[in-house]
Amino acid sequence: MKWSLFLLALGTSAFVSEHSELFSTDVGPVNITPIHGASFYIEGAGRVLYVDPAGESSYKAGPKADFILITGDGPEHLDTAAIGHISKKNTAIVAPAGPAAHLPRATAIANGETVHAGEILIQAVPAGVGREQTNGYVITYPGLRIYISGDAAFFPEMKAIRNVDVAFLALGPDALSIDDALKAVRLIKPKTLFPYRTLEGNGDDIRKQLTIAGTEVRVRKWN
Q1: How far is CA 208 from CA 155, 196, 205, 216, 218, in A?
Q2: What are the phi and psi torsion angles at 106 (to 5°)?
Q3: pTM of the full structure
Q4: Facing residues of 170 across strands?
Q5: Which CATH number fits domain 2-217: 3.30.1330.60, 3.90.930.1, 3.60.15.10, 3.50.50.60?
Q6: Rounded distance, CA 206 to CA 65, Å?
Q7: Which tens digits make up the pLDDT trace of 37-69?
Q8: What's the sign of the alpha-carbon dihedral 45, 46, 52, 56?
C-alpha cells in the first residue's frame, strides 16, 4: 500500500550543531543531527524529519517538524510532550499500528508500505521476529539512502535492505548486541554507519568492532 502525504516545503535554513553530519544528495545537502538516545532529526529537500522524539527539554533549539517517524511504542521512542513541542499544525506522523492509534494525525504503516513527502520516499521495513510493533525505516532522497533500524533484532532478511549510504543501527539490551550489529553491517554494507541508542563502553572500541571493508563507522555523542 502507498500513502501520499502532501507537506508544505520549508524555506528555513538548516539548524546545525557541533554534532551535525552533512551528506550530499542530488537535491542539495542533507543534515543529520543526533539529539539523545534513539532520537535525531534530518533536514533536506525542504523538509525536517524527526525520528523517535523523547525528552521534551531536548527540543528547544531545533526546528519544527514536517514529519515525525516513530519506530516503536517505548518511552525512549515516543514522548507525546516532545512531539507536541516540535509539531506544527500540519506535522505528519508515521508509526506502527499500535503507537499510531494513540497519536493525532498519525498514519499507520506496516512493513513494505511507503510514504511520499515530496522528493523523499519513506519505507517501513521489518525489525525482526517478535518485533511486529516496531518499524525500521529506509528514507530515500535522490542520491542518498538512509536506513534506521529502530530496536531491531538481527534477522537474515536484512540482506534485502540494499544500496544503503547511511545506516543507523540501535545498540542495547532491547536492540542489537555488538555481535549482531556486526552481522547486520556485513549484510547491509552501508557506506557510513552510526551506532546509536545505548552506547556503552569506549567509542573507539565500538568503532573498531563494527568496522568492515567499505564501511566508515562514526561514533558520535548522543546527549
Answers
A1: 22, 15, 5, 10, 10
A2: -100, 140
A3: 0.90
A4: 196
A5: 3.60.15.10
A6: 31
A7: 889 999 999 999 999 998 766 677 789 999 999
A8: positive
